[in-house]
Specification:
alpha+beta; Cytidine Deaminase, domain 2; 24% strand; globular
Length: 157
């Protein structure tokens, strides 16, 4: 037997103002995207924003439905919209935030496993890393690549 270790590096910021201009713009887009959230059951609003390699930003918000699990996470609404609008362009970064009743949670909201796998698929399609920014009121986490939040990506097909 050989014991192995997975190490994850990321940056933690105290506020959105510490981010570089490009990341700050994306984070602000994710925060504004929360306004499009439809969460009548969980009351947990999530906003996401994806930056395309040409600099454009596509936003998404979680959408719930009484016919569970027919809703969709903010990250996937943003990525699917970006993939449909820019099929030949890479997604270079994604930012997300979550909160209750429009107030951002103190700690960053983290994407579900399905969203992480979709991020991994778009990263693989582009052949380049996609950074991931998770925004909380009291701290922000930035990961250099989807591999950092999904280290054992499903790619066996």
């Amino acid at each position: 037997m050989t014991e192995k270790e997975i190490k994850i590096d990321f940056q933690e910021y105290k506020s959105i103002d510490e981010l570089n201009q490009e990341d700050k713009e994306l984070a602000q887009a994710a925060i504004s995207a929360m306004q499009g959230s439809y969460a009548p059951y969980s009351h947990f609003n999530v906003g996401a924003a994806v930056r395309i390699e040409n600099g454009d930003i596509v936003k998404g918000a979680n959408q719930e439905n009484a016919a569970f699990p027919s809703g969709l996470c903010a990250e996937r609404t943003a990525m699917f919209a970006a993939g449909a609008a820019y099929p030949d362009k890479a997604m270079t970064s994604i930012a997300l935030t979550g909160g209750v009743m429009g107030r951002i949670c103190a700690t960053p909201a983290t994407p579900c496993g399905a969203c992480r796998q979709v991020m991994a698929q778009y990263q693989a399609k582009a052949g380049k890393k996609m950074s991931v920014i998770m925004i909380g009121k009291d701290k922000i986490w930035k990961f250099h690549s989807v591999d950092d939040i999904l280290p054992l990506i499903f790619d066996s097909i």
